[in-house]
Design a protein that fits this description.
- The chain folds into 2 domains: 2-175 and 358-379, Glycogen Phosphorylase B (Rossmann fold, 3-Layer(aba) Sandwich), CATH 3.40.50; 178-354, Glycogen Phosphorylase B (Rossmann fold).
- The protein is 44% helix and 16% strand.
- It is built from 14 helices and 13 strands.
- It is elongated and about 70 Å long.
Length: 380
């Protein structure tokens, strides 16, 4: 099958999932064409059956902002026509699904019929809460898609709540390749950050307000106040980082906090971690938490959005109400204060992560593609 994948090529969860999906499909013999404005971060080497088509954005004197959706539409028309694609898979409703619909209509005039699938990742849905003017376009794009998927039941429910959706949304969760996280816990590597046998507690995010990174710091301080010897590793960067650095200076914690910045791969960090913190305001899925599970790291998180679909409370970690730092501290201390208990939670975390292994999710997408092609052909 010749498949075009339309995505944001960034460190974000949607870009990582879309790229890894394409790589896995290519390994199974499908021909994959990535279509976006720059090379996806996970597409870092030559691979069989994989092609990249750059959406070149130029400055036009007439426009204050370059009309990316129109440029993308033209690129989709070109790639579908000349690479003879059979299907488009759009990650995010706007601008990707809306551009795919326009491309579909243009190609139809030339006798080319192309179905497109839209996968909702979260931001495309929550965006309406910030700017209602997007609602008609998102609603139209979803309803006109051949098939629609969401990464969690929570996101599916939010989509039906905020939009006038007249069609079925199928939940296909995010995934990981479990084998990528089976790394030996290198004692020498861990000693670099925890020379005195401290626990290594980790948080990975884009440091936006919704991630509540101040709660991460609060949880860590609470554990230190309970007498736990620990270091905090912070991976990522973003608008809240400066505030976090200021607060760690105020609390005198900077010697115990390691700012690692943005990283292409977090596997090495998770491999030496003892606990993962995700106290977000909301998460459509919680891919970073899933990555922690795959690395045998139990998770302390908020019970919001799609996180409870990834973390089983009392099994692979604990869930607390948003902002309940005290409860998160107590739960984290419960896991780390007993070595046997910590080992059991680590085993449970890996068992939970296995459910989301790519080998289990990939056949679902392949079946979806076949159904989309059949459904689209039936309408011709």
């Amino acid at each position: 099958m010749k498949i075009g994948i339309v995505l944001y090529p960034t460190f974000g969860g949607s870009g990582v999932v879309a790229t890894e999906l394409g790589i896995a499909l290519a390994k199974k013999g499908h021909e994959i064409h990535f279509i976006t404005y720059s090379q996806p971060v996970r597409l870092d080497k030559l691979r069989e059956n994989i092609y990249f088509h750059e959406v070149a954005v130029s400055d036009y004197p007439l426009f204050e902002h370059t009309p990316y959706e129109q440029v993308l539409t033209s690129k989709l028309v070109d790639v579908v026509k000349y690479e003879k694609l059979e299907l488009l898979h759009c990650h995010y409703a706007i601008p990707h699904a809306s551009a795919a619909y326009m491309a579909q209509q243009i190609l139809k005039e030339e006798g080319i019929h192309i179905p497109f699938i839209t996968t909702l990742h979260g931001t495309d849905i929550t965006l309406v809460g910030k700017d209602p003017s997007f609602e008609p376009v998102i609603t139209f794009s979803i309803n006109k898609s051949t098939k629609v998927t969401a990464v969690s039941e929570s996101l599916k429910a939010d989509t039906y709540e905020h939009f006038k959706i007249t069609r079925e949304i199928q939940v296909i969760p995010n995934f990981i390749r479990i084998g990528d996280y089976e790394m030996p816990n290198n004692p020498k590597y861990k000693l670099r950050y925890a020379p005195n046998g401290e626990f290594l507690i980790t948080h990975i995010s884009n440091f936006r307000k919704v991630k509540r990174v101040h709660d991460v710091l609060g949880i860590f301080k609470g554990l230190l106040d309970k007498g736990l010897k620990a270091k905090l590793m912070l991976v990522g960067d973003g608008p809240e980082r400066n505030k976090l650095e200021k607060k760690c200076r105020e609390w005198g914690l900077c010697d115990s906090i390691i700012f690692l910045g943005s990283m292409k791969s977090t596997v090495e960090v998770l491999a030496i971690s003892d606990l993962f913190l995700l106290p977000s305001e909301t998460e459509s899925f919680g891919l970073s938490a899933l990555e922690a599970l795959a690395a045998k790291v139990p998770v302390i998180a908020s019970n919001t959005g799609g996180i409870p679909e990834v973390i089983t409370h009392g099994f692979s970690g604990f869930l607390s109400n948003v902002g309940d730092v005290e409860d998160m501290v107590n739960n984290a201390f419960y896991i780390l204060s007993d070595s046997e208990r910590k080992i059991q939670f680590s085993k449970n975390a890996f068992e939970e992560g296995l459910k989301f292994d790519l080998e289990n999710i990939l056949p679902i997408y392949e079946k979806l593609y076949e159904e989309a092609l059949s459904e689209h052909l039936a309408k011709l």
